[in-house]
Write a structure and sequence with these properties.
Diaminopimelate Epimerase, Chain A, domain 1, globular
């Protein structure tokens, strides 16, 4: 069979979109996992951090399911939902939409460009929970907010939260950013361990200046990526809880893939985070594949989106210049 694919990225976090609204195909759970493992393989002719399946929804404009490169399913993906937001809004010719995800129906909308001529979308990141059971994190307390986690590391302070993906976040200094500490910690908590039985996304956050942070994330099921949307959102909130930024003010979030903007709302002690950033198309293509042998596929009719790539490269250059100046 031939499957139409749109390669898209948010902050360099790249995905393949498969549209099950406009096309007649539908996949079993096993097929979704196998397609993700095969198509996302970086040694193949495609390669991506995951597949975004866009499906009909009974309660929203569309439903998003996210499968990581290892075939596991994520409950949410902040960069991915921006890509889906653009795809669905353009498909339905609307400026705003509701996207059903595993844990919640989320608002998305077209936003003012974050950088000239870069398609930009705002997506709601919620619900936010600090209860360790929602990650889950196996410790004898209800929350972990800017505290030591001795079973993992004696040096760092951590905050654990679900948005709804599970995140473990630490605000660090330049020496810690430059070390191999994040990789070793992340590898441990995403392998057999007694703390995070389902694994966890691990982010190191560096405070650049008021209103600006740098976030690097080791994603569960993926490894280090250019950016993780839910991690950048959660990190923005953690920077506020630690007094570096404020609720109700924009936070510029820099990453290895570029930058996004976050805005945290608080109502009666509950949080919602707006994640604002690019949704850039890389190419459109068809994959000819036998679902019984997904490792063997052919790529047909690839059409590059060259102008979008050129504009995003300019944003990346601007972000890298800022980091070179301030990540010291």
């Amino acid at each position: 069979m031939n499957i139409k694919l749109t390669k898209c990225h948010g902050s360099g976090n790249d995905f393949l979109i498969i549209d099950e609204i406009s096309n007649p195909y539908h996949f079993s759970e096993e097929e979704r996992a196998l397609l993700a493992q095969s198509f996302c393989n970086r040694d193949s002719s495609l390669g991506a951090d995951g597949i975004l399946f866009v499906l009909p929804s009974e309660s929203a404009h569309a439903k998003m399911r996210v499968f990581n490169a290892d075939g596991s399913e994520a409950s949410m993906c902040g960069n991915g939902i921006r890509c889906v937001a653009r795809y669905v809004c353009e498909l339905l010719d609307v400026e705003e939409a509701i996207i059903e995800t595993m844990k919640a129906n989320l608002e998305v909308k077209k936003e003012e460009d974050i950088f000239p001529e870069i398609p930009t979308y705002l997506v709601e990141i919620s619900p936010v929970s600090f209860n360790v059971k929602d990650l889950p994190l196996n410790i004898n307390q209800e929350t972990l907010r800017n505290e030591k986690l001795p079973a993992l590391n004696e040096e760092l302070d951590f905050t654990a939260l679900a948005v709804p993906n599970p995140h473990l976040i630490s605000i660090v200094d330049k020496k810690q950013i430059d070390s191999s500490l994040q990789e070793s910690l992340s590898t441990y908590v995403n392998g057999p361990n007694e703390l995070f039985e389902d694994g966890v996304n691990v982010s190191f956050v560096y405070i650049l200046e008021k209103g600006s942070i740098y976030v690097r994330t080791f994603e569960r099921g993926v490894g280090f990526t250019n950016a993780c949307g839910t991690a950048m959102s959660a990190s923005s909130l953690v920077s506020i809880l630690n007094g570096y930024n404020q609720v109700g003010e924009y936070i510029e979030v820099y990453n290895n893939g570029g930058k996004v903007r976050c805005y945290v709302h608080e109502t009666d002690g509950k949080y919602r985070i707006d994640l604002i950033g690019n949704a850039t198309y890389v190419y459109q293509v068809e994959a000819e594949v036998d679902l019984k042998y997904t490792d063997n596929f052919n790529v047909l009719n690839k059409v590059l989106c060259e102008e979008e790539a050129v504009q995003y490269e300019k944003l990346q250059q601007m972000a890298q210049q800022f980091l070179r100046k301030n990540l010291v």
